[in-house]
Amino acid sequence: MPSHPLRDRTAIVGVGYTEFSKNSGKTTLGLALEACYKAIGDAGLEVTDIDGVATYAVGDSTLSYVVADALGIEDTAYFLDHLGGGSASQSTIAAAAMAVHSGVATNVLCYRALNSRSGFRMGGTGREPRTAGDAQYQSPYGHLAPGQAVAMGARMHMERYGTTKDQLGAVAVTFRQHASMNERALMRTPITLDDYHASRMISDPLRLLDFCLESDGACAFIVTSAERARDLPQPPVYLSGVGYGPGRTLYSKAWMDPTESGARFMAPRLFGMAGVTPADIDVACIYDAFTYMVVVQMEDLGFCSKGEGGPFVASGALALGGSLPTNPHGGHLSEAYIHGYNHVLAAVEQLRGRAGPRQVEGAEVALVTGAPGGAGIALPPQCNGLVLRR
Amino acid sequence: MATNVSRPLPLPDIDSRPFWQGAKDGKLLIQRCPSCRSFRWPPRDFCNVCYTPGGDWTQVSGQGVLLSWTVQHHLLHPGFADEVPYVVLAVALDEDRRCQLLGNLRRATAEELQAGMAMEAVFEEASPEITLVHWRPRRD
Ligand SMILES: [Zn+2]
Questions:
Q1: Based on the structure, what is the number of domains in chain B?
Q2: Per-residue model confidence (pLDDT) at position B1
Q3: Residue B11, in any domain of the structure
Q4: CATH architecture type of domain A10-120+212-389
Q5: Residue ranges of the domains in chain A?
Q6: A90: CA distance to ligand 1 center in Å?
Q7: Which terminus, N or C, of chain A has the lesser number of Cβ atoms within 10 Å?
Q8: Interchain pair B77, A148: CB under 8 A
Q9: pTM of the full predicted structure?
């Protein structure tokens, strides 16, 4: 089979990030500028080399033309303001890869900047909920936050497959252990399963420690061609595969089961483009807005069979030293919540071999996912992911 | 039941107005494709099975099965301060399991719930304009 035309043709050559915190004391513009200048510098480029700017937001950040102007970029050959959070995270990098490979742009800057703790909170705290469109069938019943949708998916998974709260808790405990080795992480004190069970109930069956953090911060990346990447100072991290998959509303034609996610549609395309199988993944950075999302993605990405996600995540496989070291930075559950972009940062750091005490020895191929798509009831966002290679 | 004016209420649109009018009249109205006769929820202007435009608003039984539920302990909106912890549930209609409606639990507690149990619609006035559709276990 001929190699996919996009495989390994573009690379991430620069990364930048701000401090992750609960209160940045900065605007999202300020955060974006700091991360973007750092990424451009890390790549060994100048502002004048950047001709594309891509970002994503849910009405909670600064648009790309404002950031481009403030950075001093005079001309923009490519831009993207993608609507979404986890559903749009890795797909902005995929879009940058396509823009570069097609020749539309040369060096594309991708950023995500948000004050998701001190400002716009995903659960809606402090603002009126949407009541138009499909939200009119949800908000009046107090169905207001993603965690509720995922809790309903988790309950179905538990009823059908016998997935346990201990297994969900194992995800939280494992990622916290990883975060304890990460100076960037907001939550570094190790926890036990007892701590997990003692945490406050939020959306039964999901407790506080099933939920990710809400954080302020920004991450930025530079995507360029594989050819140019070889002349730049950092070891290139090649984009081997980019993948998209469906989401799920209350009205779906083919796919009605909240115990499945869009990742099962995406996985064969993503791995196929990269020319790898799940067994080739050395390190995984899996979108973990909730513990249950990790369980369902392990199944739908093909790391275990359907219904075996619970035992799989509790087996030790996800730990550093396990068969699939996952979220070595601590994930959204314990490092920070930069809507999927801190997962890209963690993967690049692993493939550059610069992850310090949490380095996966000899890591060559990394998987990074955004929101899994569906995996809950009335949780529309779509699915996206990347396979990266050093 | 007391209603709290600060709770979010639906903003009916051209697609959904017949549904909300039906609820106000104590009827559960669901669109049905004029061509392939499949039921459709939420309201949409085209059938996604046979792509035919339009839908016939059809009164259904108001009966279905419980798909899943969550008990919300954390207060997300001041309008629900008197309700926490409250149950949000999803019911698949007997007429077509693809029609999945959300609602709150009425006349039962979360402890009584079991996946797959029979449920029926309960109509509850939330404002002079809006009646919401909630659900209770069927007892027959
Ligand atoms: Zn039809």
A1: 1
A2: 44
A3: no
A4: 3-Layer(aba) Sandwich (3.40)
A5: 10-120+212-389
A6: 35
A7: N
A8: no
A9: 0.96
pLDDT in tens, A180-189: 999 999 999 9
pLDDT lower than 70: segments of chain A: 1, 126, 251-256
Closest CA to A15 of A181, A224, A183: A224
HSE, side-chain direction, 13 A CA sphere, residue A279: 0
- The boundaries of the domain holding residue B57 are 17-137
pLDDT digits (tens, 9 = 90+) for A105-120: 999 999 999 999 999 8
Distance from CA of B140 to the nearest CA of A (A): 25
Q: Does A202 touch chain B (CB under 8 A)?
A: yes
Residues of B with CB under 8 A from a CB of A: 7-13, 16, 40-42, 44, 48-49, 67-74, 76-77, 79-80, 83, 85-86, 88-90, 97-98, 100-104, 110, 115, 126, 130, 132, 134
| Close Cβ partners of A9 (under 8 Å, ≥ 6 residues apart) | A97, A101, A225, A226, A239
Strand B131-137, strand B118-125: pairing: antiparallel
Cβ atoms < 10 Å from Cβ of A17 = 23
**Closest to A242 (Cα-Cα) out of A215, A267, A259:** A267
